[in-house]
């Protein structure tokens, strides 16, 4: 006799794998742009990250004596490695990608109990680990050397960059945030520091120095809007994070424009856009409710701005996300939807006799 | 303020399952031919089972009372056709367990001969109590699926502000209410007016989902002469749930643990209103209902009028049988219906649909881990956190799940429907509710046992005490007697000296 199935006897045509695939699809434009902008080393780095994540995850699943295929097929490990790769300096050596990916899927996810159980965003945990452990490699930026330009690196040269740490022309170039921080230490204000470093149009299109896939603000926004349209994510966390960065930036730059960068600089630099649409919308490590997600996003944005402005590191997205990940259970404890027929405190609504 | 109200008075959450109503919506109601045998369970309602009033071997007429209501919460059962009672015993029940329940088996004689009915020419002259009494005698229960005795609801709701008639029919596939509204609108409207009269409702709203424009038109034109409002509601599951339809149509919520009457509302289903009309106007008890036979594995999906007690197989045969092997048979709608494994079960008062679904339609998949995407939170029309509740239940922390609102769950299935991880959330919740009920029962049983044991030891102590007192009394009496005898003997001796 076949077992009795419980209702409902219909199901929406969705699955975890499909959700992850949709997110990857949304990431594709910014990723492909990164490939074009930085050439073969970026492609190599991305591929190495993904392969390391797949092999690493398969290995730990094997030692747990669980079926490997369903775990790999859900795509969450690949996605975490993908997001990590996008946040790496494009000319970073291969072992950075391997270490980061292994850390993301093994320490960031499987040690906590696998998909859905991790407290911290695996990609951001790995990024922070790399940033603290290998500050030099993680902050060595290169000038874009596009795939199609005459002086672009070919495949062999690209492999040399990634696997033999062969330096690229303009390797000493700094990211905008790093540059500003350095200039501050030399007592140079924003009015001079930003010259030649911040061009809003380039920042929008992504033609600037930065991580592999974080620079193309418009393409990331496009991907984010696609995810909102497909109802994979909601607007609450991204909008809140952008507000969390932009509002204090606006207020402080209005008070002292030479010392505090304006909202456009903050929004269009570093990992804010990628963070807002792809990192803090990670369902596992963010709150359950719309209001909770808004608070979470706002916290991520504010902390990012605070770390960038007053902290020791030029970029704060990864730190901010980890800190807010830790606050997620607390937010979920206090922000709960009101239940039908009850008030916010869970007390039954009064009856209206003879109403 | 009005805009604010509009924005917040709608249903929260909800899902848009694929309707699939087009399979059967265009098919008019056809009566299923009289089967040879009818299997009529004694319990087709919430409450106590009815008590048989006829014996095996008796000839019964169509509409004749064969089992009477027992106690306050119960409903009588009538013979759906004329024939002979050939058995009263266990028969497989329309219940997921497949366990048998006490059931009358009637061998139909084919005459379909009615018992003498008590028609009423001027039902609107009836007293309110008289209407409920007739509804009660006709064995009418909520035909939307809840099968709560209707007369009891009328009695508990006298003097409500608003009577809501539920024509939502938000379950996919089902078109039985759609068809009854299209084809029998006049009778339904009269039934509604009678219910309104019985409870002295001040306003009447008929809510119909806007995916049934023909039904809305039919009901509007039938209701033109009356003051009742026919409202088109957005099509969204679970619009037809009592709590949700009240929220959408009145902007009010039933207090937790309360009833609609607590906020001055009474909700009845359209098919129930039709049954009320039949009972009051013609004196006909509830012995048949409209059933949708549909699903991808049914050759010709239909809406049929079936006598209570007709085996499900007869309905499937009447709908042309199977076009392909059904992956799952369901009684009711796909969102809240029951999986059935036996086509011998009879149609009962609460059977709204019989679905033969293909594997594609069910879309079942193995559950994967929860990724906390909170799609279930957005889908929940009650405002619960299904993912958190399921996590607590999985960890055997039932009280934690109760704290999160488990008892407010209406088991609509929206969360399970949308879950991308295919986690059977509602199954968890119903399991937990069942477990809690069992715990509650065993607690009551323990208390009762304890009470009995205490009573027993009290009784034994009392008997001991009484016996001791008795002994003491007897002893005292004996001693007094002996003393008296001794004294008398001494006196006699004295006198004798």
Q: Tell me the structural class of chain A.
A: mainly alpha
Number of helices of chain A: 17
Q: Detail the poorly predicted runs of chain B.
A: 1-9
Tell me the strand percentage band of chain B. 15-25%
The CATH class of chain A turns out to be: Mainly Alpha
Radius of gyration of chain B: 30 Å
CATH topology of chain A: Ammonium transporter fold
* Tally of discrete structural domains of chain A: 1
**Largest interface, C-beta closer than 8 angstroms, per-chain residues:** A-B, 48 and 67 residues
Distance between the termini of chain B: 119 Å
Largest sheet of chain B: 6 strands, mixed
Which runs of chain A of at least 5 residues are low in confidence (pLDDT < 50)? none
Distance between the termini of chain A: 52 Å
Describe the protein:
- The complex is a heterodimer of chains A (355) and B (497).
- Chain A is mostly helical.
- Chain A has one domain (16-333): Ammonium transporter fold (Orthogonal Bundle).
- Helix content of chain A is 59%, strand content 0%.
- Chain A has 17 helices and no strands.
- Chain A starts with 15 loop residues before the first helix and ends in a 21-residue tail after the last helix.
- The mean pLDDT of chain A is 88.
- Chain B is α/β, with parallel strands linked by helices and 497 residues long.
- Chain B has a domain at 375-435.
- Helix content of chain B is 38%, strand content 17%.
- In chain B, strands 1-14-13-17-15-16 form a 6-stranded mixed beta sheet.
- In chain B, helix 5 crosses helix 8 (270-282).
- The radius of gyration of chain B is 30 Å and the shape is globular.
- Chains A and B meet through helix 1 of A and helix 14 and helix 15 of B.
Question: What is this entry, summarized?
Answer:
By secondary structure, chain A is an all-alpha fold. In chain A, 59% of the residues lie in helices and 0% in strands. The termini of chain A are far apart.
Provide the fold topology:
The complex is a heterodimer of chains A (355) and B (497).
Chain A: H1 16-38, H2 40-63, H3 68-73, H4 76-86, H5 94-107, H6 122-133, H7 135-138, H8 155-164, H9 176-185, H10 190-193, H11 200-205, H12 217-229, H13 236-255, H14 263-267, H15 272-279, H16 290-310, H17 317-334
Chain B: H1 2-9, E1 29-31, E2 37-41, E3 51-52, E4 59-60, E5 65-68, E6 77-78, E7 83-92, E8 100-108, H2 128-137, H3 150-156, E9 162-167, H4 176-183, H5 185-199, E10 203-209, H6 213-222, E11 229-233, H7 242-250, E12 265-269, H8 270-282, E13 288-294, E14 302-307, H9 312-318, E15 328-331, E16 338-340, E17 353-357, H10 359-362, H11 375-379, H12 386-394, H13 398-403, H14 414-418, H15 425-496
């Amino acid at each position: 006799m076949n077992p009795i199935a419980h209702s409902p006897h219909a199901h929406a045509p969705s699955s975890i794998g499909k959700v992850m695939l949709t997110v990857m699809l949304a990431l594709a434009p910014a990723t492909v742009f990164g490939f074009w902008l930085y050439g073969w080393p970026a492609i190599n780095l991305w591929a190495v990250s993904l392969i390391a994540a797949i092999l690493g995850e398969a290995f730990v699943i094997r030692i747990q004596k669980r079926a490997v295929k369903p775990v790999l097929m859900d795509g969450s490990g690949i996605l975490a490695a993908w997001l990590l790769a996008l946040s790496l300096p494009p000319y970073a050596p291969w072992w950075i990608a391997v270490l980061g990916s292994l850390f993301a899927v093994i320490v960031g996810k499987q040690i906590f109990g696998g998909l859905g159980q991790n407290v911290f965003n695996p990609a951001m945990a790995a990024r922070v680990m790399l940033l603290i452990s290998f500050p030099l490699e993680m902050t060595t930026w290169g000038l874009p050397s596009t795939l199609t330009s005459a002086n672009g690196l070919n495949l062999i040269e690209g492999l040399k960059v990634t696997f033999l740490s062969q330096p690229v022309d303009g390797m000493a170039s700094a990211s905008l945030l790093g540059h500003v921080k350095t200039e501050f230490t030399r007592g140079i204000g924003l009015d001079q520091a930003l010259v030649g470093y911040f061009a809003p149009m380039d920042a929008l299109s992504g033609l600037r120095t930065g991580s592999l896939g974080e620079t193309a603000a418009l393409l990331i926004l496009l991907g984010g809007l696609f995810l909102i349209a497909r109802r994979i994510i909601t607007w609450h966390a991204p909008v809140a994070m952008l507000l969390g960065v932009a509002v204090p930036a606006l207020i402080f730059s209005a008070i002292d424009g030479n010392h505090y960068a304006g909202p456009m600089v903050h929004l269009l630099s570093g990992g804010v856009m990628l963070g807002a649409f792809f990192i803090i919308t990670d369902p596992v490590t963010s709150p359950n409710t719309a209001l909770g997600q808004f608070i979470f996003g706002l916290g991520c944005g504010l902390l990012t701005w605070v770390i960038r402005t007053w902290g020791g590191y030029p970029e704060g997205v990864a730190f901010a996300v980890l800190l807010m990940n830790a606050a997620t259970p607390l937010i979920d404890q206090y922000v709960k939807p009101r239940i039908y027929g009850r008030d916010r405190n869970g007390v039954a609504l009064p009856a209206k006799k003879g109403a | 303020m009005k805009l604010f109200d509009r924005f917040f008075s709608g249903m929260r959450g909800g899902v848009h399952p694929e309707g699939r109503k087009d399979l059967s919506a265009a098919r008019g109601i056809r009566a299923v031919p009289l089967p040879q045998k009818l299997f009529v369970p004694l319990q087709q309602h919430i409450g106590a089972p009815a008590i048989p009033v006829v014996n095996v071997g008796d000839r019964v007429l169509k509409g004749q009372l064969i089992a009477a209501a027992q106690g306050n919460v119960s409903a009588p059962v009538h013979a759906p056709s004329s024939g002979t009672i050939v058995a009263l015993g266990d028969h497989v029940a329309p219940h997921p367990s497949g366990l048998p329940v006490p059931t009358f088996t009637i061998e139909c004689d084919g005459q379909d001969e009615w018992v003498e009915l008590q028609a009423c020419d001027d039902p609107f002259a009836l007293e309110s109590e008289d209407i409920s009494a007739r509804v009660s005698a006709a064995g009418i229960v909520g035909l939307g699926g809840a099968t709560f005795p209707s007369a009891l609801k009328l009695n508990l709701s006298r003097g409500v502000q608003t009577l809501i008639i539920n024509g939502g029919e938000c379950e996919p596939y089902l078109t039985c209410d759609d068809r009854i509204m299209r084809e029998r609108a006049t009778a339904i409207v009269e039934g509604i007016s009678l219910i309104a009269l019985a409870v002295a409702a001040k306003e009447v709203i008929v809510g119909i989902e806007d995916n049934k424009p023909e039904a809305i038109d039919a009901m509007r034109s039938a209701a033109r002469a009356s003051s009742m409002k026919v409202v088109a509601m957005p099509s969204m599951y679970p619009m037809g749930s009592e709590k949700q339809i009240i929220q959408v149509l009145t902007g009010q919520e039933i207090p937790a643990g309360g009833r609609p009457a607590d906020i001055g509302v009474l909700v009845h289903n359209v098919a129930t209103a039709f049954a009320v009309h039949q009972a009051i106007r013609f004196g006909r008890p509830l012995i048949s209902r409209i059933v949708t036979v549909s699903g991808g594995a049914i050759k010709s999906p239909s809406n049929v009028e079936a006598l209570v007690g007709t085996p499900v197989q007869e309905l499937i045969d009447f709908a042309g049988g199977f076009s392909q092997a059904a992956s799952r048979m369901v009684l009711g709608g796909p969102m809240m219906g029951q999986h059935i494994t036996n086509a011998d079960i009879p149609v009962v008062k609460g059977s709204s649909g019989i679905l033969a679904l293909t594997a594609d339609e069910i879309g079942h998949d193995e559950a994967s881990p929860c990724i906390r995407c909170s799609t279930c939170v957005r889908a929940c029309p009650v405002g619960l956190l299904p993912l958190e509740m399921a996590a607590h239940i999985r960890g055997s922390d039932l009280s934690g799940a109760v704290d999160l609102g488990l008892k407010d769950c209406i088991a609509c299935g929206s969360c399970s429907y949308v879950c991308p991880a295919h986690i059977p959330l509602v199954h968890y919740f119903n399991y937990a509710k069942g477990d809690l009920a069992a715990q509650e029962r065993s607690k009551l049983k323990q208390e009762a046992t304890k009470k009995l044991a205490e009573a027993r030891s009290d009784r034994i102590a009392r008997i001991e005490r009484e016996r001791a007192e008795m002994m003491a009394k007897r002893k005292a009496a004996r001693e007094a007697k002996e003393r008296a005898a001794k004294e008398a003997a001494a006196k006699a001796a004295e006198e004798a000296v």
